[in-house]
Amino acid sequence: MKTRSNFDVPDRASDPVDRMIVDSLAKLDGVALGLSLALLFGLIVFAATNIIILKGGDVVGPNLALLGQFFIGYDVTFSGSIVGFVYGGMSGFILGWLIASLRNFVVSVYIHYLKVKGSMSAVNDYIDNP
Fold first, then answer.
1. Using an 8 Å Cβ cutoff, are 104 and 28 in contact?
2. In the chain, which residues have pLDDT < 50?
3. Distance between CA atoms of residues 67 and 87, nearest Å
């Protein structure tokens, strides 16, 4: 017995245009998007901190040090870059999950709207042409 997953497409979507529409309205995986943004944001903070440390100079990263206001324990040092990686990862995951959830919600509301509109159109056609 074959089980259906959330991403199975009905057989009626064999037309390439229908298939493209179904694929564009597929759900986004919040965990996958969250993990990818977590890795991206974490690596950006980690790399930016370490590049500024390696660059050196009289004043090392005053602008980047402002992240310490949001990320408790962060400073422009190597150990601070690890703390920044963790905080950047958490921020990226939350942002990615929220983006995916919001997009899935908006698409589901839009699909519901289209179904109601189609139903009302069918009712109007029936009333107009008995």
1. yes
2. 1
3. 10
Burial of 12 (0-12, 13-18, 19+ CB in 10 A): exposed
Domain residue ranges of the chain, discontinuous segments joined by +: 30-102
- CA–chain centroid gap for 74, Å, is 25
pLDDT attached to residue 11? 56
Q: What does the mean pLDDT of the chain come to?
A: 84
The first and second tokens of residue 121, run together, are 């159109």
Q: How far is CA 21 from CA 34, 108, 112, 116, in A?
A: 25, 14, 15, 18
DSSP string, 39-98: HHHHHHHHHHHHHHHHH--SS--TTGGGGGGTSTT--SSHHHHHHHHHHHHHHHHHHHHH
**Residue 88, pLDDT score:** 95
Total length of the chain: 130
